[in-house]
Structure formats: C-alpha cells, structure tokens
Amino acid sequence: MALESLGICEAVDLLASGSVSALELVNDCLNRIDEHDETIQAWAWIDHEYARSQAKKLDAVRASGKPVGRLHGIPIAIKDIIDTALIPTEYGSTIFEGRKTKNNAALVDRLLQEGAIMMGKSVTTSLATFVPGKTTNPHNADHTPGGSSSGSAAAVASYMTPGAIGTQTNGSVIRPAAFCGTVGYKPSYGLIPRTGVLQQSPFLDQVGVFARTVEDAALLAEVMMGADGIDKHCCPQVAPQSLQKISQSEPPLPPKFAFIKTAAWERADGDTQEGLAEVVEFLGDQVTELTLSRSFSAVWDDIKLINEAEIAFCYGAMYRNAKEKLHPVNVAQIESGMKVEAYRYIEAMDKRSHLNSILDEIFDEFDAIICPSATGEAPHGIEATGDPVFCSPWTFCGVPALTLPLLQGSKGLPIGVQLIGAAMDDGRLLRTARWLQNALKDETE
Q1: Is 315 helix (H, G, I), strand (E, B) or coil?
Q2: What order of strands is seen across the sheet that includes strand 257-260?
Q3: Which of 321, 346, 359, 373 sits 20 to 30 Å CA-CA off 211?
Q4: 8 A C-beta contact, residue 178 and residue 403
Q5: Where are the alpha helices (DSSP H) in 189-298?
Q6: Residue 79: strand pairing partners
Q7: How far apart are CA 222 and CA 111, in angstroms?
Q8: Which of 279, 302, 297, 299 is nearest to 289 (CA)?
Q9: Rounded CA separation 354/347 (Å)
Q10: Is the bond leading into 148 cis (omega within 30 degrees of zero)?
Q11: What is the pLDDT of residues 383-392, one digit of tens each?
C-alpha cells in the first residue's frame, strides 16, 4: 500500500484499525520527500528524526489504550509564517533567519492536541507577499506553484504529506491549490484564530487548508476552529463540530449554483472559460448565470488599498530597521501603503458589510457561487506567483471559498473550479462542493 497517497480520513481509519502505524505513514512520506523535494523544494525546514520521534510517541499512546485525537498520527505541513515552538519560523525572509519562538501558534496547539504530527515547515513567499520562494510546481518544475502558500500546496499535491496549513490575504490558498491540483479551503473570516501567525493585514488575513478531498479539508479545518481569547477578530462561537459530517452527507435537495464570471472574466484564459462552460452545461437547470452588483466594481482596488495600508503598519518596523534586507517588491508595497489616506482606508473597510448583504441575497436562493479559481493553469516561470483576481472579492468579504481540481488545461496542468458560500455557512458550502465533485466524477466514469 502506498501510504503517502492516503487522504487524511483514509489514514485516520487505517490508523484506528491498527492496519497502519503512524511511524509507517511518516516513513513513507519522508521517502517521498527524499525522492522529489530536490526538485519541488516544498520545505523550508524538515527534520526526519523529529517527525519520526513524534510518530513513535503517538503510536505508543495508541498502544496504551489512552484516548486519541481526531488527527492522531496524521502528518501535517505548517506554513513558515506560523509559529512553532523551538522550530524555526522565518517568514521566508533573511531578516528572520533562525527565528524561534517559545510558543506555538494557537492553531498549531490545536492540531497537536488532536494528535497531528508536525511534519515540518513549508515554504512561503517572502513575508507572505508576491515575492516567490524556492518551490516549483509538482506537475512541471518550470511553472509556479502559486503563492504565498506555495510549499503547503506543493507538499500535498506531490504526496509528501496528506494535509497542510496555509494562509490567505488575497488568493494565497485558493490560487496555489488550483495551480497544484489539490482541494484548497479558506473558511469564513473569524473561524480560525490567527494568534501566532505573521500579521500582514488584520482585516484580510485568513487561515486555510490544503487536502486531497473535501472531507479531509473539512476535518483539518474543523479542529483549528473556535475563539482563543486573543485574536479579537475570531468569532466567539463554538467550533462547528459537525463540519466534517456535513461535508460527507448529501444535500437535502439538489444544490443550486449561481455562475458569476465577475468583472475579471476577460482575464481568464480560453481553457478556463471553456472548462467553466462545460461545468455550467453539466449542471443544466441547477445553475443560473448572475452578474455581480455594481457595488463590487471597486473591490479589487479596495482590497489592494487595505492590504498595502496594513502592510505599512504591520511591516513598518522592518522598513525602518532593515529596509536594505527587504525585497524591492516589499519596499514598494510598504511605501505605497504609507501614502494611503485615512478616510480612504476606513471607507474601503466599511464596504464589507454592504457587499455581504448583497451576497446574502444570492445565498438565500443559491447554495454556492461558482467561478474560476485563477486565470488559468499555473503560469510558466517561477519569478511570479500568478494573479489572485478571482479570489479578491471573496477574501475581501470574508466568505468561505473552496477550490476543486476538476479541470485540466492544454499544457496538462490543473485548473481549479472555485465555489463560494455564505458567511459562517461553511458546512453548506462543503456539502455542496462534495456533491459537485462526486457528480462530475460519476459523469466521467
């Protein structure tokens, strides 16, 4: 059995039955890393014995008959902007080379409490912005894996680990997941605490996951959810413990989809436009094409303005103390943010509630919005990470988004299909996504 190809839920069941040990699973993943990471370079930090020692301890706990968590023995990659105690967290920047903290990020503690194995730290773009890291696309090393969660997406897509954690401030989960051909899920804003995660834009920063199936993504995200008492933007509600179960159930009625091209449609390449048209044709009467309200017309400018203003605030100390070590792209972002006028910043942020009220009306009738995940296949070259334009409206609004690896372009690279759900109705989105994936699978078999 090729253990490294197992999804999270498959592995959980095999580990629980005793058919597989955590050490066996970790060893197969490490072998995969040894075989392929010289080219893919998904890891910022990896230590084989560190991973094995965790697996051995977890196998001993299971053998003792003590209670185990929902991810007991599952290897997970952690994006290198997320604090991990005593293990380097360097933010993809030479400024923070060798940086270590005494505490884990809140989400890492929750993963470990559920028995996850911290496989290592996955590569991020510099300071989680547009400056590429060293990672290449697992399907073709001459193409970008996307960013900023490049290593996380590549690690899952290349079977180095069954799941990974990333973050999204614009399109940094959905885009790399689409480029690398994995499921990518960004939950509703405020469901996962960001305590211990590099702060780039408090209004926009959101945690997300990479996995092989919708059910895997649901489980991985669910164990991290719930307020921690520190992240003031995290919703004070109990984590939806039924999220994974909802994702495995069938919708009570055939789901209805709103196909929304957005104003960015002309930036999608022919393969993406044709692929989405085929999905829409397959859905037939279950899909209706809608046009976004004109109120969304400025959302692309607004997300850029807010992001740069908050980068200027969050990265200001780096600019003042180590400007010469910053990449010119980072310097330009910070300096642009410094020029943002206060009234424009407040005005832009104030639009979220209005835009969400428009989306709420759509979700009163439809289960999900369907649109491209990215402009097309992963672009050639690793000097840039691709365009997040099809992610911007949904990240700005903080609604849940998920990409499914349903299409393939003319170059043989994956093309994702993005589904958007109503704010705080993540279970409905996940259930709808699973229905769509299964329906299309049945159609092609």
Answers
A1: coil
A2: 43-46, 117-122, 75-79, 163-168, 206-211, 183-186, 401-408, 414-420, 368-372, 257-260, 287-290
A3: 359
A4: yes
A5: 214-222, 243-248, 270-283
A6: 122
A7: 10
A8: 279
A9: 12
A10: yes
A11: 999 999 999 9
CB distance 306 to 345 below 8 Å: yes
**Of 357, 407, 394, 362, residue with least CA distance to 256:** 362
**Residue 142 in this model has a pLDDT that exceeds 90:** yes
Q: What is the pTM of this model?
A: 0.97
Give me the half-sphere count of Cα atoms (radius 13 Å) on the Cβ side of residue 45: 23
- Name the 3-class secondary structure at 84: strand
Q: Which amino acid is at 145?
A: P
Beta-strand relationship, 206-211 and 183-186: antiparallel
For residue 235, the 8-state DSSP code is: -
In terms of residues, how long is the chain?
A: 445
Determine the residue type at 307.
N
For 444, the token pair is 């092609």
* Residue at token pair 């910070």: 334
What are the E-state strand segments in 176-270? 183-186, 206-211, 257-260
Q: Which amino acid is at 86?
A: L
The band of 238, judged by pLDDT with boundaries at 50, 70 and 90, is: low
Kindly list the catalytic residues. 79, 148, 172
